[in-house]
Amino acid sequence: MERPDWAPPGIDISVPSVSRIYDYYLGGSHNFEVDRQTARRAMEFLPGLPKIMQANRAFMRRAVRHAVAEGITQFLDIGSGIPTFGNVHEVAQAATPDARVVYVDHDPVAVAHSRAVLAADDRSDIVAADLRKPADILHSPQALSLLDFDRPVALLLVAVLHFLEDHDRPHEAVAELRDALAPGSLIVLTHASYEGLPTAREVAGGAVDVYRGTRNPLVMRSREEVTAFFDGFEILEPGVVAMPRWRPEPEADPDAPAGDPGAALPDGPDDDEDPYTFAGFAGVGRKA
After folding, report:
1. Does pLDDT of 125 surpass 70?
2. Residue ranges of the alpha helices (H) in 217-282?
3. Cα separation, 19 vs 87, whole angstroms
4. Rounded to whole angstroms, how far apart are CA atoms 199 and 9?
């Protein structure tokens, strides 16, 4: 198996990574053959997985713009993955020059590529850390340098909590992060679910089984279970909903360039929209 020049030393390119699989779904190039094979196997059961990921990105961009509109200029994006066009720092800095962003990921490829992308940006940085250990994130030099936790922060947990099993204590991790945030801070969250999928649960379970071969098995949770992650936050309207239904915009995402997959994906529900985009849940909450 040939190792790409951009692969950091020590990476086991025979083991799939969820961040690199996500990169593949979005049309990125920082993934290995084992990631592509895993993604294609999952798509045999859920062919609309790329559409779900595109809807996820479109929601994230809308939520970031909403945070800026509320006066928030600090962003902590955990499980940020491999940078693609329209990432948090690009959307936030386009809306306000004061935006500061700290990304967090534990995939070495995501961290290495993020460092390369952010090398000339003194308002953004990447932390190599894991959501399961919030203290490592909160006390990292990058977070302490760029973020003022006495002021509101937008905490992004986009498409990451469904890779934590119950024994990983995801609710405790979110609570620890919440308690470190100032009043007025936002939590921005998406989560996979069997609910909303345009296919039988038994069929979708085949894709879930494929992810068991990665280091981060996929955990599907109900709307009620996803809503529980907002404990201590006031859930903003329209609530915990399908991603395209969270404050849809009338036009295609303005951050997406011509030819970008997100450009062709409406941000709002539409009769012609791919039904897969309504799978899973999204929401935004505000700390009182």
Report:
1. yes
2. 223-227
3. 14
4. 41
- Radius of gyration, alpha carbons of the chain: 18
Amino acid type, 137: I
User: Closest by alpha carbon to 282, among 156, 106, 198?
Assistant: 156
Helix axes 18-25, 108-118, angle to 10 degrees: 60
CA-wise closest residue to 280 among 197, 205, 209: 197
Mind listing the pLDDT tens digit for each residue in 3-13?
Answer: 666 666 666 77
Residues in contact with 133: Cβ distance below 8 Å, sequence separation at least 6, in sequence order: none
Is 157 a member of any domain?
A: yes
Asked whether residue 11 is domain-assigned, the answer is: no
Supply the range of the domain harboring residue 201: 18-242+275-287
Q: Is 79 a domain residue?
A: yes
pTM of the model: 0.88
Taking only the tens place, the pLDDT of each residue in 138-195 is 999 999 999 999 999 999 999 999 999 999 999 999 999 999 999 999 999 999 999 9
* Integer Cα distance of 174 and 220 in angstroms: 17
